[in-house]
Every structure is written in C-alpha cells, then in structure tokens.
Amino acid sequence: AQLTIGFSQIGSESGWRAAETSVSKQEAAKRKVNLKIADAQQKQENQIKAIRSFIAQNVDAIFLAPVVSTGWDAVLKEAKEAKIPVVLLDRDIDPSGKDLYLTAVTSDSVHEGEVAGDWLAKTVGAKACNIVELQGTVGASVATNRKKGFDTAIAKHPNLKVVRSQTGDFTRAKGKEVMESFIKAEGGGKSICAVYAHNDDMMVGAIQAMKEAGLKPGKDILTVSIDAVPDIFKAMVAGEANATVELTPNMAGPALDAVAAFKDKGTVPQKWIQTESKLYTAADDPQKIYDSKKGLGY
Amino acid sequence: MENSLDPAPPLLEVCGISKSFGAVRALQEVDFTLRAGEIHALLGENGAGKSTLIKVITGVFPRDGGIVRLGGEEVAPRSAKAALQAGIATVYQEVNLLPNLSVAQNLFLDRQPMRFGIVREAEMRRRAKALLAGFGLDIDVAAPLGSYSVAVQHVTAIARAVDLSARVLILDEPTASLDRHEVDILFGIMRQLAGRGIGIVFVSHFLDQVYEISDRITVLRNGRLVGERETASLPRLELIRMMLGRELAETTSERASAGEHKAREVCASFENYGKAGYVAPFNLELRHGEVVGLAGLLGSGRTETARLVFGAERADRGQAKVEGASVRLQTPRDGVRLGFGYCPEERKTDGIVADLTVRENIVLALQAKRGLYLPLSRREQDEIARRYIKMLDIRPADPERPVGLLSGGNQQKVLLARWLATSPRLLVLDEPTRGIDVGAHAEIIRLIRELCDDGLALLVISSELDEIVTYSDRVVVLRDRAHVDELTGEAIDVSNILAAIAADGATVAHEGRA
Amino acid sequence: MRGLPPVLITAIVLVAGFALCAVQFPNIASTRVVGNLLTDNAFLGIVAIGMTFVIISGGIDLSVGSVIGFTTVFVALAIERWGVPPLVAFVAVLALSAAFGAAMGAVIHVFDLPPFIVTLAGMFLARGASFLLSTESVPITAPIYSTVSDFALRLPGGGRLTAIAIIMLVIVLGGALLLHLTRFGANVYALGGSRSTASLMGVAVGKMTVKIYMLSSLLAGIAGIVFSFYTSAGYSLSAVGVELDTIAAVVIGGTLLTGGQGSVIGTFLGVLIQGLIQTYINFDGTLSSWWTKIATGVLLFAFIALQQGLVALARRPVARSAGAAS
Amino acid sequence: MTALLPRRGLAQILALIVILAVDRAVSPQFFDLRLQDGRLFGSLIDVLNRGTPVALLSLGMVLVIATRGIDLSVGAVMAISGAIAASLADSHGLPIVLAAALGAGLLCGLWNGFLVSVLGMQPIVATLILMVAGRGIAQLITEGRIVTFSSPDLVWLGNGAVLGVPVPVAIALGMLILTGAVVRGSALGLLIEATGGNARASELAGVGTRAMIMAVYVWCSICAALAGVIAAADIMGADANNAGLWLELDAILAVVIGGTSLFGGRFSLVLAVLGALIIQTMNTGILLSGYPPEFNLLVKAVVVLAVLLLQSPKLSGFGSIVARLRRTKA
Ligand SMILES: Nc1ncnc2c1ncn2[C@@H]1O[C@H](COP(=O)(O)OP(=O)(O)OP(=O)(O)O)[C@@H](O)[C@H]1O
Ligand SMILES: Nc1ncnc2c1ncn2[C@@H]1O[C@H](COP(=O)(O)OP(=O)(O)OP(=O)(O)O)[C@@H](O)[C@H]1O
Ligand SMILES: [Mg+2]
Ligand SMILES: [Mg+2]
Predict the structure, then answer these.
(1) Domain ranges of chain D
(2) Residue B313 CA: which ligand 2 atom is closest?
(3) CATH number of the domain at B12-244, please?
(4) Quick one: pLDDT at residue C316?
(5) CA pair distance B272, B262, nearest whole angstrom
(6) How far apart are CA B387 and CA B389, in angstroms?
(7) Closest atom of ligand 2 relative to the B298 alpha carbon
(8) Is the N-terminal amide bond of B396 cis, ω within 30° of 0?
(9) Per-residue pLDDT at D325
(10) Strands ordered across the beta sheet of B291-295
C-alpha cells in the first residue's frame, strides 16, 4: 500500500529550508510516498498542532524538523501510543526523548562549526588573525551550536581571535548591515582578517558590504560560512568567497528509506543517521556545483 | 431663605482661586460661597470661567492658588473621585457619562450593589428604574446609554449626581437639552434636596430658570468675580449688565411682516421626502430670505428632518429640488456642494474637531467644498478666521487655539462660522443657541435675521419656543417623527405651537428610543 | 444583555466553519480534534482573556508573547538549574510578571504615554531579559511536568481533555465572571468608553490601568507556565508573534479595538476560530509555506467578512423597529 | 509648507543628538566621512542608508495613523514588491520593473483601503490579513528562494550614488519632499487631520472621509513598495521570507516617536522620518558597540522608553519631575 507520511516542516525562513522542502517532495515522489507537509511558520506550537493532527489522521509515519530541541516529549508520546513512528529531520531533540522517535537524520551543527574553524586555522597558518562573526538568530540552536563548534576549533590556535560578534538573523540584509558596521568599527576593515558567518545568506550580504567599502572579499578578508547554497558558489567563482560547509537539503531521502525498511521488514535503523558536513572551497569547481544545485529550489 | 444671618460656617467656601491654562488666565482670585440648603446660580458669559471654577473645586484641574473649605474644613480633592468622597457630586457641562455602558451601570458605576464580590445586576436595575422614575423617565435601563437621545442622557447624568450628592450638588448647564417638562421635574427635585440641607450650584444661560429656582447669584466675568447678590433683589437688566459688562441692546421680538414671504423664490424643496423608520415622508419648501422653524418635543424627529434635508441621511423616497432642479442628495458632500450647511446639535461628537485649531475648524467646510486641489492659502485661512472670530466675538480671539480648549458656547460659534464661511444658500441649524450666553444669544438671533435679509434660506430647530416664534416666518410642527402642522404669519405663537404639538391630546411621551 | 448578539454571531460563524471543515475532512468532527483544539490553544486562550480586558479598556498589550517566553525560560532555569521547587518557581514568576505588567500600567498612566509603544518597549524588555537568562532551550524534567502533561480526562471517541485545557476553561470562566459580573469589570468598560469621563465619574483611572495591565501580564505568565507544560521546556524564542495572534483572536471575538465593547466568551470563540483555521490547513496538508500563509489570510478574511455581514444583517431590522417603536 | 518644519520636535532633535553622542562615545570614528567609489562612506551614511526603508514606511504610516488607522501589512508589501522587482529585473527595463512593483503596492493599498473604508473593518485586523497573506504571496512569487538579479539599473537604486549621496537616501528625501508637497501643498493634510480628529464631524462638514482613508492606505502601500524595491536592490536579491519582517513595528514606533498620536489627528512627516532616524541611529550604535547580541533588545527597550519619556506631555523637563514629586509628597 502507498505510505502516507506527515512532515512537520519548520517554515520557509531561508533558501536552504525551501530547498529541503522541495527535495523532500522530490524524494517522496521518487518512492511513490504520499507526503503531507504542514508548514509551522517557525512556531513550535504549530508543529505540535500539526503532529497532533497527523495522529488524528492516522498517518503511517511522521517526519519532524523540530524548530527547537526541547518540548516534544508529550506529543511524541501521543504518537508512540498511536504506534506511529517519528523520524527527526535536520535537527535533533533533547536526549530525554531518545526512545520516542525511530531515528534522526541530521547533520551535526557543532561539527559544521568545527569544520569551518579548522579550515580557517589551516588556511591562516601561524599568522595573527582577527575574525568577525555573523551569528544566526539569537537563541536559535543552530546558531548556538555553530558558534560553539567554531569556538572550539579556533581555541587551539591562539593566533585566531573573534573580535566582534553580532547577530545577522540569518538574513542577507542584516548580514550586510552588520558587516558594514563591523568594517567601520574595525578601522575600515583593515584589521579584519576573516569573516565567519553562520549561514551563506548572511555571508552573501557581508560580501556586498565589503565590496562597497572597497575591500576585496576572498582576498583581503577570508570568508567561511555554512550551508553551501548556490549563491555562495557563484561568489566563489568570482573569487569573492573562500569556503563553505555543506548542509545537505536531502534529509528526507535517508529518512524515507529507513521508514520503508521499518514498515516492510521491521528493520530498526540506527538512532542517528548523520549527514556529511562537506567542506567546499574554490578548488572544488564551484561553477559545476552551482549548476547542479541551482534547480533544487534554494 | 432665612439663613443669610446664620452664624455657622458656609457649606462650601472658595477663597482666592486662580487658574491659568498657559497664557490664558481662566480664573483670577475668585471667591465663592455656598450655604447649606440654598440654590446658588453661577452665571457669566461664555468663557467666563464657570466650568473651570467647578472643575477646580472638584479637583479635576489642579489649582494655581486659593483655598476651598467644605463645612469649615480645608479640602483639596485631587480627583473627581476624591471630591465625590468628600460629598460633592457634579454634573459637568458636556454629558459625562459612558455611552457604551448600560443606563443602570452609568447610574451606579463604582458603587454597584454587591454580594460576594458580584454585582447584583437585578437589584441594580431595579434601583436604576426607581431612580429614573423620580425624573419621569421610564426606559429600559439595561440598554446602552448611547442608544438614547441627549436628553435622556442628560437626565441620567443628573439622576446619578442627585443620587450621589451628600452635601453639595453642582449642575453645569443641566437644562441645556431638556424640555420644559423635564426642567420642572428637575427643579422639583432640586428644591427637595435644598430642603434637606444640600447646597446646590446651578449654572445656566436661561435667565428665566435662574430667577425661578435660585436663591442667590454669583457672576463671573473674564475669570474674575463680579459680585454676589440675592436673586430677589437683583433686577434682570442689572444682572445682564453684571455679566456682559455693558447694556444689552434689547432684541425686539417683532418679525418680518407675514405677507412678505409669498413673493420669495424657492431655494430648496422636498417632495414626499422621507426614510422608512426614520421620518415619515414630508413636503417642505425653503425659500430665500425665510426662516423656517422646526418645533416639537424631544425625539419628535426634528434632528432627523434636518439630517435628511442636509443629506447626512439618505432618503429612500421622494425628490429633492434646488432652485427648481432635481438634485442628488445622498451624502453630506452632496449637501455641501449644493450650498447647504448644517450645524448639528451634538457639537462635541458631530461638530468640532477638537484637536484642530479654531482657524482650521472654521475653514474646514469651505475647504471640503472647494476640493483638494484648490487649497486655501494660509493667508486666506487667517483672513477668514479673523473675520469670523471678530464677527461672532469668539473668545479667546486666538485662531491658533485648539478648539477643544474653548468654552462650550464659543465652540458653538466656531461651528456657525464654519458654515457661514462657505456662503451657503441654505443653512440648517440644530439648536444653535444651546449653551450660549445671553449676549451671544441675542447676537445669533440678530445674525439669523441678517443672514435672512441677505437671501439665505434657514431651517432652525430650537427647543425654546419663544426663540422660534421670534425669528421664524413659518413653523413646522413635528410629532412622532412626522410633520403634523405648519404655522405661518399671525398664527405663529407659543400657544398655537403647543396646541399643535399636543393636538390629539396624546400623552407627552418622554421615552428615549433603543 | 449587552454584547450578546455579536457573541452569538461569532458562535454561529464558528459552528458553520466547523461544519464546513468537517464536510471536507470527516475526521475533524471527532472529540479528538476538539480536545486538541482546546489543548493546543490553551495558552493562546489564556493570554487572550487578559488581552480582552486590556483592549476593552481602550489599550493594547504587545508584550504578552515576550512575557510567555520569559516565563518559560525563568521557570525552566529555576526548576532545573537553581533547584527551586516547581510551585515556588510558579509563584515567583507570576509575581514577577504581575509586577512587570503593573509597571507598564503605571508608566502608561503616570506619563500619559500610548500603551502601544510602552508595551512594545515591554516586549523588547521581556524578550531581551529571557535572552540574558538563557539563549539555549532548557528541558524541564521535574516529575510534576510529566504528571500534569499525562493527566487528561478521556472523552468519548478518543479525545482528551488535558490539564492545560482545563486550566484554560477555568480561566475563561473566571475571566467572564470578572469582566461581566464585578465592579472591576464594569470599570474596565468605563475606561474603554472614555478615560476622562470615567475619571470624572469617580473611577480611579490610574489604579485601574495598573490593575488591568497587571492582569494581562499575570495571565501571560500563567500562559507561559501552561506553555512550559505544553512543551516541557523553557526557550527564549517561544511565543514570538503571539501578541498578534492574540489581538486577532480578541478582535475576531467581537471586541472593538477602540475599547468599550467586547466579551470574554467572544474572545474564547475567536481563539477557537483561529485554531480551526490552523486545523483545517493542517488537515489539508498539501499547502506549501506560502499557500499556508495565503490560506490563513483568506480564511481570516472570510471569517471576519462573514461576521461583519451577519452583524450588518442583524442590525438592520433593529434600526427599523427603533423607528416604529417611537 | 510650514508644517514641514514644525515648531515642535525639540524633544526628538534632542533625543537624536543624545543618541548620536552616545554612538560617538562607543565608536570614536562615528562621524568620519570619506569618499569611496564616488560615494560617501561612514557610519553616518550607514545610518541614513539603513534607515531608508523604515523612513519610507513611516512616511506612509504617519498618514494612515493620522486618520486613526494603522497598517500592519507594510512589511509584507515590501516583500511582494521586492519579489516582483527581482523577478522582472533581468528581463525588463527599470521603468517596467518599477511600474510593476509600485503597481503591486497600489493594489495592496486599494485592498487595505477597501477593507477599512468600504467594509468598515478595524484597521488592525484588516491589515493583519494582508500582513499574513502578503508574505505568502511574496513567497509564492519567489517560491521561497532568494531570487537574485544583476540588472545594473536596479542595483544602482540600491547601491548607487548621486553627488556622493546614496541613491536610497536621495529617494527617501525625494519622497519626503513629494509627500510634503502633496499633503501640505493641497488641502489633503488638513482634511486628513480632520478625518483622524473626528471622522463623523468631518463627514458632516463635507469631507470625503472614505476617499481620504482610501488615499492614505494607497499611499502607505506605495511607500512600502518603494521601500521593498530598495531593500531588494540593496542585497541584489529578493528575500521574500525576511524582507520587511517586523518593520511595521519599527515604522509605527518611528511615527509615535515623531509625536503623532495613535488616536489620529495632527501629524508631522518630518518628525516621523526623524523618528525613523532615531531608531536607526540607535540600531547602528548597538552594532558598533560590540556588546553581545543578547543585549540588543534590552538596549532598544531602554532607549525607546527614554525617548518617549522625554516627550511625555507630563514630563517636559526636569523641573516638572521635581514639581511632581513635591506634589505627590504633599
Ligand atoms: N482644558 C483647558 N485648556 C486650556 N484652556 C481652557 C481649558 N478649559 C477651559 N479653558 C479656557 O478657560 C476659559 C474659561 O472656560 P470655561 O469653560 O470655564 O467657560 P464657561 O464659563 O464654562 O463658558 P460656557 O458658558 O461657554 O460653558 C476659556 O477661555 C477657555 O478657553
Ligand atoms: N442616523 C443617525 N446617525 C447618527 N446620529 C443620529 C442618527 N439619527 C439620529 N441621530 C441623532 O440621534 C439624536 C436623537 O434624535 P431625536 O430623535 O432626539 O431628534 P429630535 O427630534 O431633533 O430631538 P432633539 O429635541 O433632541 O433635537 C439626535 O441628536 C441625532 O443627532
Ligand atoms: Mg461651561
Ligand atoms: Mg435634535
């Protein structure tokens, strides 16, 4: 029988998220699964409502991309009582709920930060380097983790120092505005050696700010960010960005496979299916990656 | 009243009160004394400072200087609530009740009968009904106050204050929107309260009423005390001189001769004009140079007729014609374009734009008539404002003052100025002299006549039959939302109007409407 | 009874909407969905009651969403990190939020500032304070939480009336009592009619203002605790934007933003209407993020337009009979 | 034109000066200006440039508020117009792009105006509908992604300069002058103030209050559409998810800081724009200060309260505080 799966998606706050949604649809269509997507508009209460209504509709499985790590116990317990398996996509939840879901297909966002930090440390070498950081939304777990990972990675290198850190709310416009003021505050940007942004969108904005200030991003100032959205590859092609860490939008594929196996053969998957946090630099033929990613709905 | 020689301290004693609003010195060193059991009239021109004095006494306005003693003890209430607790109940000039609350809630706000912390709604309604019955009002007290006419609202406000008054009752123009019948009831109650030893302050521009009810009179002028007299020993002309500071050119009460109006041209005519559930269809001809008075009881449909004639309300039948041609008259804009003007009776809600200046309020209708693209230059606006401030003696004569800060009577004059500035062909005046002092009253009546002589057509509503008789060439009498009679020429006198109003001997109904 | 007809109309709109939804998705007509509707909107219902008082009094309170966020973080930290017993933490956070509301009310009254802006500053302040407490979400593991979230009255047909739904219903009833049957409630309407007039009539306007905003913040605090039960966690970003949902619910419930009119039951119905819109969209399940927003807007419009149409219809015969009666 | 330069506004100017001084204290090079690629460069320019969208929004919002309304949909309208501009930018010329984007704004304004003035809905819910649905429409246009473009014309609107002044700033200034000229040069200003002060009385005085209300919502949406185009041009892309998000609150805040009452009536265009600048000066100061972002909202709250207290009718100056204290003690 055709599977019906309910997917409680966070919303559409960024290009990456839109890509995840459209890739999920493609993957479901490939496997002839009926995927019901409920968009929570960034609100946990909406996600809980959506899960409850999936339970009420008696779906075969529930995918959940949790907006926050806590607070799922009660509703996941209900799902468990209704014998509906739950798969977490993209983000993990608090450990107390470990037995309430089948598996989690996520990237490790602390690790993403580390990859970015390690790349920077390697590229800079022994030179002293002042870093400015564009944080994600204050309070968002991804932002907290990417900051944590990056901080751990550079802590081993006393020559690297984060001199300024402000939130750019994960958006281009804010990324640009914040970078503008960083440049002013750091003597016209002369003392900045690298920018680390918690996502590519903010970095694209920051690159514009640097260009408008007469600086050469990618050369005067190194850039490293996370997500690997198409536009950052465009910047790489132009030599204006140096590195990005990929967060794959295809979380649904492995999740669908796990659910299918579980339903057909009762195979219990691993608790955590970790996606790869691949580092891309100008050496990786950015033009080709750009072309391949362009159609994914970013 | 024999107690003028009473050695006990006066009930309420006000010494040397001063109050300024910015540069305007509303009160300067005013003294005022109220004895127990007396009815004391507080008189003065518009803007003399009567309402301000009252608000200073009750703590609504902080005072700049002076002392208030109540029963010999100094008091300084800092809010209306404090004044109430001290035993001073007040009806302020504009109806100060809440239209969104039920009549009963208005009467018992903040003092509802309670049981276990819950308002006893049924008990409260019973008491409200009983209280209003004392004023000859039998209405549904659970309905929102706002669904009743101004008159009912005013009576309710008075009833509330009367019920609250422990020692002093202050009434600021309580009779402005009342009928003779209600006034009689009110006076009866006032006498009764005075008999119980309560002191009553009474503000009014109706001198007849002042002489009828008051024991003593205090007169203010330009924020200063002019004097305090026994009513019985103060001739009327002397009183007017005290108020105005000059003689009043006595208005003659002769009208234009009766035969004259037939020759005049019709300005606007309404045939079988009406709206279902609002006013029964009527025929009305308004001629250039002629004053038509609308007479009737409260709620008889005068305001409704006025609104239909002006276009504030859309008729659902009949035909309106201006200078003989059929016209479209569905919105106030149509009315204004046709050269009509309308001073509504509720100036606070329907008339003035309180935040705007006197100048802006005066030019508003003219500007609306000219349209967006022909703005009046600032110079033209100043010019117009200055002209009408002078012509109508609006005080203070500052065109840049927000109109909301003017005294009630002066606001009324600003409204009149607004319409005169549009040089209308037809002017509809709903209670134009309400709240206006004797001097201005005479002025306005003179003005109405002059306007008429200049060819303006006038439709005037007034509850004062004497006044209607004075200036009308024709009087249309309404009853129960229908035009029932029309008097012309010699037939116009108070007794004929009264007869027409009560023609079929119907009970004189004073109910409001839901 | 003042305010009944609009409430009746709102109720009719709700029932009609529910029936229409049930025709399309028969699953909706189950006690399970009704139970969910009450549980999922419990916190919204509670803040909306407070907001009803504020709006009827002629004000507005934009800080409620942030107060909810602050409350969840405070409670979570107090219980999990500072080792405070849960009940003590609740009392403390309610005292804090009530004081916060009182302070806003006092600023509004004493300095004669517009509530919109004062509570906007309050919104920044409460959200900022919760960031300072913790930017991470803090799970709450205290036993009382699982006890409360597991508690539910089973309804026939598989539905569950949860503890938080019951709390909400109790508060709705209490709010209705307070607003419609007490002196305090009458004074709230009085303030909404006209502050200056109410003051002239002897209402202690200042005290009332303080109390009203205090009530609103207190209820937001309770809603925050309920929210923490709902999610078993404290998170500084929870309930972002809830103030607008709340205002919409109150207004859909027939309360005038200009003050002076409205009812608690109407607000409750307004909350349910919003919940119904959400449920419908979830059941549909085919909507992309943008179609979700568009559909929400369209349904919001449909409900309000329907309501206004009915009100206009209801008013017409009244006008006629008013004329005939006099 | 006298109302363009109102006598009041001392409090606002004072607030701006104080905040500028604080900015200078946290960032010593705050007032530095230099020319960079034919364009002025410095923090002050950032303040003007970044303040442009809110300034434009507040230009429309102040008129809406003057009629006793409110428009929550401006952020969504920004997103819509930005999305339209970005989608058309690389295939059409600037005039068509602008016409389409502003035309969309016009439609949005007509819709809001229709709901408020014809259907008689309460402004806050009427515009809430478009606030919710409008962002959906914008996302529908972009399908949730960030649509980028490279049309030099449109990019110039965001990043170009005339005589060293950034184009957005010049546009905002132009709009201020245009709005001022239209509003105060015709009778519109007076009639709007009358409508907001007392709609019933104005209607009876012959003012077409419905048309007034319609006009202000239309103008507000057009201003928002322009702000949306500029925001898109600035980042060379349309971010339908985030463009203009929560800016309606900033715009309302700017209007109120500019001394216009939310209860309608008197308004001042210049002060509303000054309000927008005050907000942006504060925001830029926060960014320059180097405090951790967790403090941003707290600082904002304190500054907003301080600015409002400065203008409180009950608190004009220190003297009155003392007087108050003395009175309460007595
Ligand atoms: N709130 C206020 N602010 C500024 N000026 C005021 C205020 N209230 C009254 N005034 C001014 O004080 C003066 C006295 O006004 P007041 O209302 O006391 O007159 P009044 O004697 O009651 O007149 P009326 O018979 O027209 O009611 C007027 O010049 C008026 O403009
Ligand atoms: N359609 C309407 N819209 C707004 N106000 C109205 C409408 N119809 C009547 N009114 C107001 O309701 C009030 C009640 O009118 P009422 O029936 O008492 O008129 P009236 O016969 O002129 O009585 P009065 O003696 O009070 O002038 C009037 O003040 C009028 O302004
Ligand atoms: Mg007076
Ligand atoms: Mg009348």
Answers:
(1) 10-329
(2) 1
(3) 3.40.50.300
(4) 55
(5) 21
(6) 6
(7) 25
(8) yes
(9) 47
(10) B340-343, B426-430, B457-461, B291-295, B474-479, B482-488
Cβ of B149 closer than 6 Å to ligand 2, yes or no, is yes
In this predicted structure, the answer to whether residue A278 has a pLDDT above a threshold of 90 is: yes
Token pair listed for A68: 């926050």
Same fold, B12-244 and B249-339+425-514: yes
Is the pLDDT assigned to residue A6 strictly greater than 90? yes
pLDDT exceeds 90 at position C231 = no
CB–CB contact D190 B372 (8 Å) = no
H helix count then E strand count, chain C:
14, 4
The three-class DSSP label of residue B505 is: coil
> What digits encode the pLDDT tens for the residues B231-271?
999 998 889 889 888 776 655 445 544 445 456 788 999 99
Chains in contact with D, where contact means 3 or more Cβ–Cβ distances below 8 Å, are: A, B, C
| Residue listed under structure tokens 């004081």 | C99
Report chain A residues whose CB lies below 8 A from the CB of C293.
41
SS3 state of residue D249: helix
Q: How far apart are CA C73 and CA C93, in angstroms?
A: 10
Q: What angle do CA B12, B18, B19 make, to 5 degrees?
A: 115
Pairing outcome for strands A129-135 and A160-167: parallel
Establish whether residue B299 lines the binding site of ligand 2, counting it when its CB lies within 6 angstroms of any ligand atom: yes
The C-alpha atoms of residue D188 and residue D219 are separated, in whole angstroms, by: 12
Neighbours of D285 (CB within 10 A): 23
Residues C74 and C234: beta-carbon distance below 8 Å: yes
Q: Where are the domains of chain C?
A: 4-308
Query: A-chain residues within 8 Å CB-CB of C138?
Result: 70
Q: Where are the beta strands (DSSP E) in B2-138?
A: 12-21, 24-34, 39-43, 65-70, 73-75, 88-91, 114-115, 118-119
Query: Residue C1: what pLDDT?
Result: 38
Closest chain D C-alpha to A185 CA, distance in angstroms: 6
Q: Using one digit for the tens of pLDDT, what is the confidence trace for B196-241? A: 889 999 999 888 899 999 999 999 998 999 999 999 999 988 898 8
> What is the value of pTM for the model shown?
0.89
Do C and A touch, counting CB pairs below 8 Å (3 needed)?
A: yes
CATH fold, domain D10-329, is: ABC transporter involved in vitamin B12 uptake, BtuC (1.10.3470)
- Pick the closest to residue B309 from B348, B338, B352, B288 (CA basis): B338
Residue range D62-95, pLDDT digits in tens: 999 999 999 999 999 999 999 999 999 999 999 9
Of B110, B142, B509, the CB nearest to C203: B110
Instruction: Give the residue with greater pLDDT, D127 vs C152.
Output: D127
What's residue B249's pLDDT?
62
Q: From the CA of D61, how far away is ligand 1's center (Å)?
A: 35
- Cβ neighbours around D100 below 10 Å, total: 18
B92: DSSP letter: -
Which ipTM did the prediction report?
Answer: 0.88
Residue D57 has pLDDT above 60, yes or no: yes
CB atoms within 10 A of CB D24: 15
In the predicted model, is pLDDT for residue C313 greater than 80?
no
Q: What residues pair up with C154 in beta bridges, in sequence order?
A: C160
CA of B304 to the centre of ligand 2 (A): 6
Boundaries of every domain in chain B: 12-244, 249-339+425-514, 351-423
What pLDDT, on the 0 to 100 scale, is given for residue A33?
94
Residue by residue, DSSP assigns B344-402 as -S-IIIII--TTSBHHHHHHHHHHHHH-TTSPPPHHHHHHHHHHHHHHHT-SS--TTSB
The arrangement of secondary structure in B249-339+425-514, i.e. its CATH architecture, is 3-Layer(aba) Sandwich (3.40)
pLDDT tens per residue across span D1-34:
334 434 578 888 999 999 999 999 999 989 999 8
Nearest Cα neighbor of C39 from C151, C135, C140, C163 is: C163
Name which CATH class applies to C4-308: mainly alpha
- Pairing, β B39-43 against β B216-221: parallel
